[in-house]
Amino acid sequence: MSQSSHTLSAEPVQYTLFTRVFGGIDSPELKKKLESSLKDLVAPIERIFLNDAAATAAIERACVPQKAASFVSFSSDPVHMKRWELSADIRVIKPNLPGRPGIVEANLQSLTRDFGACVAIPLLYGSDFLNRYPELLDDFWKFDNNLFPLLMIGIPPWAPLKMVKEGRAARARILGEMEALYRRIDQYQRGVPVDFCADMSDVSSAPFERNKVYEREGWSFAERGTGDFAILWGQNANTHPVLFWFLAYVYSTPSLLDRLREEIAPDVHLSEASLPEITSMDLPALSMNCQLLKACIFETYRMVNEPTSIRYVARPITIDDGEFKHELKPSMFVSAPHALINQDPTVFAHPEEFDPDRFLEIDPDSGKLMARYGRLRPWGTGVSMCKGRTFAEKEIVSLGAAIICLWDIAPASGTWELPDMIPGTGVKSPVKDIRVVITRRSL
Ligand code: HEM
């Protein structure tokens, strides 16, 4: 997998995904356009999502402390709820009144993944896109949960299944909105009036740079929308389910929450009030100092991520594998399911246990504990390794730390019981959501 892309190429796999799953209409012209654009289309994503300083700056723009303070709003009226609360089946047990802190019940997976998406999507496409399309989050998860896995395993798109039909309808709505977004991006870039006078001022540089490449290579607006749907999916489909599992493990593992709160405290300052607010959050310091927090994220990857690198063999190559030799011939496909070792007891002792300390090692130079990936490969490998990994990890660090600092989360049933998991599109899905009780942390 560490071979150059001239030998092991991800491009044919990406084209198949693009046409089979994301809705691109297969044609020799489209294939040629994708081949001549792909490298230049990925570069603007790398500049924001892979570069450390840019990813930090993007997350700092997201006002995470303020948003996390409204993780739940204690409102039962959808008009006053935050967008991320709408699909979480919120039930206000006790309203939030002065001197009497509120209590709500909610579905943790829905709440967390929509919270993450509401933070991340505007950083890429601006707030107007999210505000203009109220069903975006529901459509996104319907596509991701229902349609994506079925199309990946080769179920034809015309299959008379409810999940396929609903998933395709959701995908069609997303593609329509992405196409309309690209028309607005193009108008704004050309300096002509923008449809609906939409505010484009907070759209990131990535879609504008990508639009120039799309324009150069003659992509239609519908094709541009499809091309960016793949990026919207990459940005949201894994990060926010990971955030959900991370919170589920942290809150359900005895004594871990207290250890994390202690570790985070120097880098996330809280007000003196009995129900504290975050007054400042030092994201670079959190990433550097909070090694237990990082180890918890790594252990969450180990428990729930299912990364696979699939490559097309473009040039013959022989791989030495101990006593074996593998002859890979051109036009073969190779697949590396990196998660196979994650549950192997010879690699990770007691793999069924959530044990973040397994990723902490003493750094020989500083003598301090450092979180190290070891044999974990959550981002795939080689040249086509994830281009959003820096951003994704910082996002989980900042959102995770903010929620941990501000909220107490307990199981509604009284006892933590994590649901069974089924395969997802990159991160395992729970067979059912976790019903939780959420209250503001009191100091
Ligand atoms: C926890 C969150 C995430 C996980 C677990 C994850 C995982 C992966 C994996 C396993 C791959 C395939 C690598 C391979 O083929 O070897 C990949 C590719 C990719 N990811 Fe991510 N990803 C995450 C977040 C993101 C984010 C936030 C973005 C930002 C847009 C992103 C953008 C991409 C892109 C563009 C590729 C294709 C890279 C290429 O072919 O050159 N990902 N990701």
UniProtKB/TrEMBL annotation:
Molecular function per GO: heme binding; iron ion binding; monooxygenase activity; oxidoreductase activity, acting on paired donors, with incorporation or reduction of molecular oxygen
Single GO cellular component term: endoplasmic reticulum membrane
Subcellular location: Endoplasmic reticulum membrane
Transmembrane segments: none
Membrane topology: Single-pass membrane protein
Cofactor(s) the protein requires to work: heme
InterPro entries the record matches: Cyt_P450 (IPR001128), Cyt_P450_E_grp-IV (IPR002403), Cyt_P450_sf (IPR036396)
Pfam families: p450
Presence of keyword Lipid biosynthesis: yes
Residues that, per the record, bind heme: 386
CDD domains to which the protein is assigned, alphabetical: CYP7_CYP8-like (cd11040)
Residue runs in coiled coils: none
Keywords linked to the UniProt accession: Heme, Iron, Lipid biosynthesis, Lipid metabolism, Metal-binding, Oxidoreductase
UniProt family annotation: Belongs to the cytochrome P450 family.
Alphabetized PANTHER family for the sequence: P450, PUTATIVE (EUROFUNG)-RELATED, PTHR24306
Protein's recorded name: Cytochrome P450
Annotated organism of origin: Talaromyces pinophilus (Penicillium pinophilum)
